[in-house]
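User: quick one, sequence for these C-alpha cells?
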C-alpha cells in the first residue's frame, strides 16, 4: 500500500475499533466422521463506512505493523467468547492470537479474565498460534503456552506446513491440534504432491495424538 493510503487506513482502523465497525464471522469446523459442526473459528470483518468491506489481508498486516493488533485482538477474544457462550451444542470457539498479542506480558491474565467475565468454559476456547510466533523466543513461548494450557483452553498450531513446520515444536509445545495450511487444501484436487503432504501431516498428527483441521475446504472432493 502507498504510505498515504496506509496512514489513512491506520487512522480509520483506530476509529473502526472505537465505533463498532468491526464484527466477527464464524467459520465452521466439521467433523469428518459425523459431518457435524463441532466448532467455529472467529474471523474478523471490517465494514468501512465509505469503502465498504475491507479484506482482512489488507488491514491485519497493517494492524500488526502499528501495534493496533493488540487492542483489536483483545476485542476479538472478548467478543467471540461473549457472542458464543450461549450457543446450543456448545461448540469450540477458536480465536487467532497474533504474535504481538501472544508476547504481551498480560496475555494469560487477559484470557483468564475474558473466560471469567463471559462465563465461557475454558475447554470451549481454542487459541490458534502460528509457528512464527514461537520462534523468536522459544523458552518464553513455552512458558506462555504452558500457562494458557493450565487455564484449560485448547491450543492449535495454525497454518501448519508453511514456514519451518518444525517437528520438534510439535513435540516440545503442548498443542492439542494442528491446522493444515489452506494452500495444500486448495491444491488437493489437481496436485498429487499436495495430497501426499496432507496425508503425511494427518498420519503424523495421529501418531502424536493431535487433532487435525484442514483449513479452507470448499468443495466436496476436498
Ligand atoms: Mn487461524
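Assistant:
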Amino acid at each position: 500500500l502507498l504510505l498515504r493510503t496506509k496512514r489513512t487506513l491506520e487512522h480509520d482502523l483506530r476509529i473502526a475499533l472505537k465505533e463498532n465497525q468491526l464484527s466477527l464471522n464464524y467459520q465452521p469446523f466439521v467433523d469428518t466422521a459425523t459431518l457435524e459442526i463441532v466448532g467455529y473459528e472467529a474471523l474478523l470483518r471490517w465494514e468501512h463506512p465509505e469503502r465498504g468491506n475491507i479484506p482482512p489481508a489488507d488491514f491485519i498486516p497493517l494492524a500488526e505493523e502499528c501495534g493496533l493488533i493488540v487492542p483489536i485482538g483483545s476485542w476479538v477474544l472478548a467478543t467471540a467468547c461473549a457472542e458464543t457462550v450461549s450457543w446450543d451444542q456448545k461448540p469450540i470457539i477458536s480465536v487467532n492470537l497474533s504474535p504481538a498479542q501472544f508476547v504481551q506480558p498480560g496475555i494469560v491474565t487477559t484470557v483468564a479474565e475474558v473466560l471469567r467475565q463471559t462465563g465461557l468454559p475454558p475447554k470451549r476456547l481454542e487459541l490458534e498460534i502460528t509457528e512464527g510466533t514461537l520462534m523468536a523466543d522459544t523458552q518464553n513461548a513455552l512458558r506462555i503456552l504452558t500457562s494458557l494450557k493450565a487455564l484449560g483452553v485448547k491450543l492449535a498450531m495454525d497454518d501448519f506446513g508453511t514456514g519451518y513446520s518444525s517437528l520438534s515444536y510439535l513435540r516440545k509445545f503442548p498443542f492439542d491440534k494442528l491446522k493444515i495450511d489452506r494452500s495444500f487444501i486448495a491444491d488437493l484436487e489437481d496436485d498429487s504432491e499436495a495430497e501426499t503432504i496432507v496425508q503425511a501431516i494427518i498420519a503424523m498428527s495421529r501418531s502424536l495424538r493431535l487433532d487435525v483441521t484442514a483449513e479452507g475446504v470448499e468443495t466436496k472432493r476436498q
